[in-house]
């Protein structure tokens, strides 16, 4: 728990509108085979951390025809992570698909006055039988709960009409809570009920209860920078007599490179390693001291060379 609370003032809430025109569409130009999957876009000017995007046409069943929450947007590289995605089992390239695209649906401001998230504890199920020496039980499924908010109403407001439509069709939508510090909580919901009240000397008011139907996702404020990609280069053995056979092993952190170029330092041709290959053998035929280097390419960006262990060949 934080020792310092933040004010609810300036908290904004939005409900996805599935029938209005999308606010952004574009092309997915590349994607990594990793968990989570990092996607490269043709344009990120209308994208932001915490927003859901609908992905199609990549040819990858693990991410196609689904909505994903964007995190860790890199404006310069035009990349972002799809939260909780896993494309490690994909074998083709995105470029082989029918046409990888993304779509961002419109969102309506619900203009909430107050809100409450109620998460229901998992039910304890009694499993005691006459054969047991003591009471036994197991924990049932946890209910994600409900989100309730109240608001003032103009019955002709398009956002209110969209809320009524969401209640009528019963489709799953995304609900965004944007806190004043920039954090975004995204919840998959179904509009469960809408209530409207009024009086002669009162403003028309309403409340809505939304059933949470999946895992809420919290996206940290953009000021919290994700850790940078890094690769460690290890070589074994590091000494011996010529010809000396060595094995280079790479260990990645915070991402997956699309390729590595290995320079062995002995004047031989460079070797190229692609995604999924993290070891490479080489033979030093001549006595001397050599220092191999590795250059990683991550979403089209060439990272600085990382030197490995020095090798002494006698």
TrEMBL record:
Q: Which organism is it from?
A: Caballeronia calidae
Q: Which InterPro entries match?
A: Ig-like_fold, Phage_TTP_11, PKD_dom_sf
> What protein is this chain from?
Phage major tail protein 2
One Pfam family recorded for the sequence: Phage_TTP_11
């Amino acid at each position: 728990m934080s020792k310092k609370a933040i004010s609810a003032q300036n908290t904004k809430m939005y409900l996805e509108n599935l029938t209005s025109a999308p606010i952004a569409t574009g092309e997915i130009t590349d994607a990594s085979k990793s968990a989570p999957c990092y996607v490269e876009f043709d344009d990120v000017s209308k994208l932001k951390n915490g927003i859901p995007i609908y992905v199609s046409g990549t040819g990858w069943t693990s991410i196609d025809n689904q909505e994903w929450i964007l995190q860790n947007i890199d404006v310069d590289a035009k990349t972002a992570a799809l939260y909780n995605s896993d494309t490690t089992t994909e074998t083709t390239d995105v470029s082989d698909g029918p046409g990888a695209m993304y779509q961002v649906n419109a969102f309506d401001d619900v203009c909430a006055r107050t809100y409450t998230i109620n998460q229901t504890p998992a039910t304890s199920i009694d499993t005691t039988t006459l054969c047991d020496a003591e009471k036994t039980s197991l924990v049932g499924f946890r209910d994600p709960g409900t989100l309730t908010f109240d608001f003032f109403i103009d019955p002709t407001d398009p956002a209110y009409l969209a809320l009524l439509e969401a209640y009528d069709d019963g489709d799953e939508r995304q609900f965004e809570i944007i806190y004043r510090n920039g954090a975004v909580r995204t919840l998959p919901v179904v509009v469960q009920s809408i209530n409207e009240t009024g009086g002669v000397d009162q403003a028309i008011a309403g409340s809505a209860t939304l059933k949470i139907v999946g895992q809420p996702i919290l996206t940290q404020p953009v000021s919290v920078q994700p850790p940078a990609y890094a690769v460690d280069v290890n070589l074994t053995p590091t000494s011996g007599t010529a010809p000396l056979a060595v094995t280079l092993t790479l260990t990645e952190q915070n991402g997956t490179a699309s390729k590595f170029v290995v320079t062995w330092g002995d004047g031989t041709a460079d070797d190229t390693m692609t995604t999924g290959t993290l070891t490479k053998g080489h033979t030093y035929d001549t006595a001397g001291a050599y220092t191999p280097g590795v250059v990683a390419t991550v979403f089209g960006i060439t990272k600085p060379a990382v030197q490995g262990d020095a090798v002494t060949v006698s």
